Each structure stands twice: as C-alpha cells, then as structure tokens.
Amino acid sequence: MSPSDSADAWTTAERSIVPSVLGLSSLIAVGIAAGLTALGVLVDLVRQGTLGFVFTVLYIAGCVLAIAWVRRDGLFGPMVAPPLLLAVAVPAVVLLAGDPKPGTGMAERLLQIGAPLVNAFPTMAGTTAFVLAVGLFRMATQKIRRTPSMDKKPAREPIRPERAAARAAARRPASPRRS
Questions:
Q1: Containing domain of residue 162, as a range?
Q2: pLDDT tens column, 108-156
Q3: Which of 7, 24, 138, 179 is within CB 3.0–4.6 Å of 19 for a Cys-Cys bond?
Q4: What is the dihedral sign for C-alpha 93, 98, 103, 104?
Q5: Total domain count for the chain?
Q6: Alpha-carbon span 166 to 57, nearest angstrom
C-alpha cells in the first residue's frame, strides 16, 4: 500500500498532522501532554526541588506532541491544555516540595505558590502561542469538507396500509364517546 493510499484511508477529521497517520482522541492527546508534564515535574522535583530545564523540555514536548497527534476534529483540548497544565503542575510542585514552616500564614503560602507561576509564565505563554499557531494552521489546511452524502437526510420508509390502519386503531379510545 502506498502512502497516498493510506492517506485516503481516513477522513480528514480522523487524521493527525501527518495525513497518512491516524490521529489520537483529544483525551488521549491531552493525557500524553499531562503525563510528560508530570514526568518533568517529578524529575526536577527529585533532582533539584524546583522546576527546571527537564520540566520545561518535557512540558513543551508534551504539548507539541498532543497538538500534532490529535485528530483534526479534537483540536480544542490540546489547544487549551498548556496554561491549564502549568496552572496545575506548578502549585503541585510548590505544595509537594515546600515544607510548611510553623506559623506560616495563608498569605505567605499563596506567595510561595504565586512566585513560581509568575516565573513560569514566559514558558507557558510561548508554548501556548506555538500550540495555538499549529492548531490554527491545522484548522486552515485540514478543512473538513462536507460531502453531498452528509447533507442527505435518511429516506423514510413508506408506511404500509396495514400499519397505518393499526396506528389509527391504536389512537382511537377504547370507550365510546359521550353524546
């Protein structure tokens, strides 16, 4: 089977960014991004106790792979995933890595969470912009074209006379009408 034959095997809505490759569902693609992000968080948490280079690389790679491997009809999830992943991953690292000191107030705890979020913003913004650009590119180039068969309504089965009589009899009340 040639590459052009396999490209025709799936509809545009089912393809990934590579036309000859079947795309993943949106949930699985976002799961890949979340899994690579979590792996980066764990590696950096064990290595240095804070987010670093490994997290950044795996976070970006997961988000880019998600938008590339997802089906054309499931682009929305991976397109909005980068800021959501970061909004979950960074506070989780801070809460898991940081030992609460006795007497630490809520305001200080919020600042401990907020500072890494602010520091990770450029990574998140760049990743989100790139993922949105790839998603919009795919939307523009992989248009889902409606075929005439999509617009056809299914033909109704003709009503047989005996069925019509049975339906009419079923609609009549069993008791006689009052005069």
A1: 3-171
A2: 777 777 887 888 899 999 999 999 999 999 888 887 776 665 556 666 6
A3: 7
A4: negative
A5: 1
A6: 69
d(C-alpha 106, C-alpha 146), whole Å: 55
Q: For residue 23, which of 63, 65, 60, 80 has the smallest C-alpha distance?
A: 65
pTM (global) more than 0.90: no
CB 22 within 8 A of CB 10: yes
Q: Which two tokens stand for residue 62?
A: 């997961």
Q: Give the pLDDT of residue 41.
A: 85
Q: What is the pLDDT of residue 76?
A: 93
- Using a pLDDT cut of 90, give the percent of the chain over it: 33
- Within-domain flag for 179: no
The reply to whether 178 falls in a domain is no
Q: Which residues contact 61 (CB under 8 A, 6 or more apart)?
A: 36
φ/ψ bin of 78: left (φ > 0), alpha (ψ from -120 to 50), beta (otherwise): alpha
pLDDT at 1: 44
Q: Decide: 114 and 47 in contact? Cβ < 8 Å.
A: no
Structure tokens at 138: 């795919």
